[in-house]
């Protein structure tokens, strides 16, 4: 599954926001997901990040789905590949940034190939996990665009 969006900011700003979010910034992927560094750093090979999916939103109750990603490869400002190694998802995911319009905008893609594991595998028989993941990712990318647009607007004053 591939989710993508165009963000009205340069790739370096999108990269910085992505890495900050994985370090725990909780700035734009909430209310769906929160992240916390476990070991190393998310933009360093071998770094691990604990991910919590808040099915009803942060602090709203509901099921919390947890998993851990380990960074496999990094091309700063361009590509981050991870492997889900523990918890309710297993398998790879890749974030790819593509500069557009001479660098003024960036296409951000998440190639998600994680497979449900454990209790989520059972839930996936009743719910379309892929559609829910895509909906949350698209909402996060839209929030990222709004956040970086706000930073741009504030900087131009």
TrEMBL record:
Species whose genome carries this gene: Streptomyces liangshanensis
Full protein name: SRPBCC family protein
Source organism phylogeny: Bacteria, Bacillati, Actinomycetota, Actinomycetes, Kitasatosporales
SUPFAM superfamilies recorded: Bet v1-like
């Amino acid at each position: 599954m591939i989710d993508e969006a165009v963000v009205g900011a340069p790739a370096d700003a999108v990269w910085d926001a992505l890495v900050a979010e994985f370090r725990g910034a909780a700035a734009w992927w909430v209310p769906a997901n929160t992240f916390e560094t476990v070991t190393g750093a998310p933009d360093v090979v071998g770094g691990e990040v604990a991910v919590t999916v808040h099915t009803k939103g942060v602090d709203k109750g509901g099921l919390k789905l947890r998993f851990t990603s380990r960074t496999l490869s990094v091309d700063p400002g361009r590509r981050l590949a991870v492997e889900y190694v523990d918890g309710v998802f297993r398998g790879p995911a890749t974030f790819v940034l593509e500069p557009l319009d001479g660098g003024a905008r960036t296409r951000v893609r998440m190639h998600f190939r994680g497979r449900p594991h454990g209790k989520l595998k059972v839930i996936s028989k009743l719910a379309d996990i892929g559609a829910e993941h895509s909906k949350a990712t698209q909402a996060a990318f839209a929030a990222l665009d709004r956040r970086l647009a706000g930073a741009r607007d504030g900087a131009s004053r």
